[in-house]
Amino acid sequence: MSSQPNTTVLDEHRDIPYIATDARNPLHEFDLYVPKRRENLDTRLPPLVCFIHGGAWRSEDKAEHAGLARRLAAHTNFPVAVPNYRLTTASTPIRHPGHAEDLLAFLHSLLTWSGPQASAPTPPYDPTRLYLIGHSCSAHMLTSIFLQPPEPASDASPLLASPSSTASGVPSPPPSPIPTPDTLVPSPALLAATHAIVMSEGLYDLDALLVTYPAYKTWFIAPTFGRLRSYAPWNTASYQLRPGAEHLRWLILHSKGDTLVDQGQSERIWGHLTELYGQDVHVGDKGGPVQREWEVLTEEHNEMLAGEVYPRLVGDYILANIQCQESAGPS
């Protein structure tokens, strides 16, 4: 239990498994930060906020974002979940979509989880109201789930470069399978439960990313997707809306101080989403289903997560979204 500067008191539940197995796997667990409910005032279960960490598909852990989770929970007075997922490392050389498959399993588990206490098997949140936050590579993971890739072209094989090997001369794992509309499909219940997605410093168009940062190919793109001539099939800024996702609202954040991911990535997904939703990019910025904020944040790529501005921006967006839904009433 932890007391926040604004006197918000949290129950903190750690290392909750979201995939049932006999052996514990820390990469298939999540932490949950729950503000104490005011019994006389809170008659409805609150929504759940989920923060999914970045780390180039190869690093970071949920514990590193405990401070952000606490600040988000304190600002919104909503529970905040932070999951782990498998990473691409020398000992676990998994390819995309393995990481996103873990994320999808986590999200599905939230719909039916019975809660942290066997004596009171009720989750401390409303599983029909989910708000998701993806930072850096996890923004790619979220768009890989909630947007739908097209059928692959019949001539996709020329995308493959010559076979690559590791430094020890051992052949690398095969490249990621070309995504199809059946890849990473969320259930209708998950689509309906997800109300909004916030994405910050996201990666979407990998080919464009490598034009700006060519060293990223060796560092994390090739280990995650394979050493290919083009990564166009994994450009989520070219995917379509999944049936049942038309109600989703999106917020795209980018910091002016980020030197690790250029704003062009956010511009690509912003332009594509506004086109998918038929939103006028000139007049619909603040009230449409796709919103952006590229002027307020000034910190470096991950430093923003340790500050106060980021959780305030995200929290205010979620609170405003909920207020707007409640004002509109049942559809």
UniProtKB/TrEMBL annotation:
<dbReference type="InterPro" id="IPR029058">
    <property type="entry name" value="AB_hydrolase_fold"/>
</dbReference>
<dbReference type="InterPro" id="IPR050300">
    <property type="entry name" value="GDXG_lipolytic_enzyme"/>
</dbReference>
<feature type="compositionally biased region" description="Pro residues">
    <location>
        <begin position="171"/>
        <end position="180"/>
    </location>
</feature>
<dbReference type="Pfam" id="PF20434">
    <property type="entry name" value="BD-FAE"/>
</dbReference>
<dbReference type="InterPro" id="IPR049492">
    <property type="entry name" value="BD-FAE-like_dom"/>
</dbReference>
<protein>
    <submittedName>
        <fullName>Alpha/Beta hydrolase protein</fullName>
    </submittedName>
</protein>
<keyword id="KW-0378">Hydrolase</keyword>
<feature type="domain" description="BD-FAE-like">
    <location>
        <begin position="31"/>
        <end position="141"/>
    </location>
</feature>
<feature type="region of interest" description="Disordered">
    <location>
        <begin position="153"/>
        <end position="183"/>
    </location>
</feature>
<feature type="compositionally biased region" description="Low complexity">
    <location>
        <begin position="153"/>
        <end position="170"/>
    </location>
</feature>
<dbReference type="GO" id="GO:0016787">
    <property type="term" value="F:hydrolase activity"/>
</dbReference>
